[in-house]
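Progress against Task 2.4 (sequence-to-structure conversion) is shown through the following example record, which the project officer requested during the mid-term review.
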Amino acid sequence: MGRICKTLCLLITLNVGVVYGDTPDARNKFFTFTFENDIFVGEDDGYTNGTGITFGSAGFDEFSTSNVPWWIHWLIKDRYINTAPNKTRAIAHMFFQRMQTPTVITDSDFIVDDVPYAGLLAWQGTAYSWDANVSDQMSLYLGMVGPVTQAEQAQKLIHSAIGSDEPLGWRFQLKNEPVFKIELQRTWKLYRNDSSRFQYDVVGLGGVGLGNLITATKGGFAVRFGTNLSNSMGGFSLQADRHVNSLAFTKTNDFYFFVGARAGYVAHDILINGNTFTDSHSVSLEHFQNEAAAGALWSRNRWAFVFAVLSASAQTELNDDRESFGAFSVTYRY
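Structure tokens generated for the chain above:
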């Protein structure tokens, strides 16, 4: 198990992803590189770093055992994500590592009044179904928190490489525990002006998740400005780097900027509430949370890029400080 986790962490640290097309057409194959870090916004606490690799396939009319694993097909074959007519569909698999630290990482003593040290290593499988006006996303998360995630080693390696302070409190991190989450999300067009090459639209955002990883429901909206917006609904999210870059699905050179916000109720978050089945460090969860994001997506020939910044309200009742981080991903289509 330890060797497998170290191998996953090495792959994630390399931050290389591949998206394989559903057909032999080379234009449907992708490489994706992704990186999240609060260093983009000049911080180094709370949610501090995340990396991941993604692979999948896109552009088919329905899910079948020829384009998704049999057990995923068994789960979704009779669901709306597969039965809704006149949709384009995709499947994506992301393997990711994320880490959380308290504000002061140079203190080797136990810090009671701040979030626990925590690492998360997980797989996220997402089925997409969309048209020009509505996109549905159904995701399953399976993974681990605790020392097995190698988050301590990954953060120390990154901090050593960039000259940041060494984190000293990882021995107080959450204990090993399996985690899961089932998540449903929908994005729908509220308004679109497409009377010229440069378009803008307003989209609604809604979602619910259930699991010992996170249980929450959130809703909001976003405003987008760019080109060919009707063809970029499939993978849109306020956290655009955590989904397939939908501009990479098109064979045209397009771009768009977005700004948006959402809010909702978080019933449980293992990174704040601590381990579910054993005693561990935990703090009081702030149930009502909100977040705002802005970013840019661009595709040019065989390349597609995402850069985004997200600011989230406090996740705990300890303070009112917002938490921010930036994200970057690059996709190569071959």
